[in-house]
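<discrete_fold_record>
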Amino acid sequence: MKNIILSAMATASLLASPSVMASEAYITATGGLPYSFTGTFDVFKGINIVGCNVVLTVTGPDGTGDGKHAATPPRASHVDIASIGSSNVTLSFSGGTPAACAAGVQYVGFSSVSYTPTAYNNGVLTFHNLNLNTPLTPNGCYGDLPLTWDGVKLSASGTLPDRANPGVGPDCHFTGDLYADDTSTLFSVSGDFDH
């Protein structure tokens, strides 16, 4: 019994020790901030808008100097995904056929962002509680939108429920790809030891 108690105390001490560190997901690129992704989405919410030009830009917060990612790789300049807020992201829609993307889909904000890795520099970036206005059709859309990162692009193939009538609709449907403007863009969890 004494050995079990000592073992439990040693384990608890190890877990509380600052030398035992947790990993945190981050984005980095050799060109530094901002990190931009551009491409096209097809959007459907009561009306079908094909070929929306979409630009997603992450402007921070800049994690340079916080002591994370000091090794190469990863690079010191980075953004911890969990720290990204609505004020650090711009999401714009333009063009499309009919040319209604800017009028038809407007970014409002989101509550948080998470990243789930599936392999090195591959994973799923999810915008939680993404809020979009849709002035050409009623109610807007609100919900979680996962984007799959394959090392080159973020791909969307998902649905945001109707904001006023979840489960009834009409929902927002998105399909398309956003390519990283900086080809060195890396999504990772390795080497980030900040706890």
Summary: The chain is about 10% helix and 45% strand. The CA atoms of residues 6 and 163 lie 54 Å apart. The chain has one domain: 21-188.
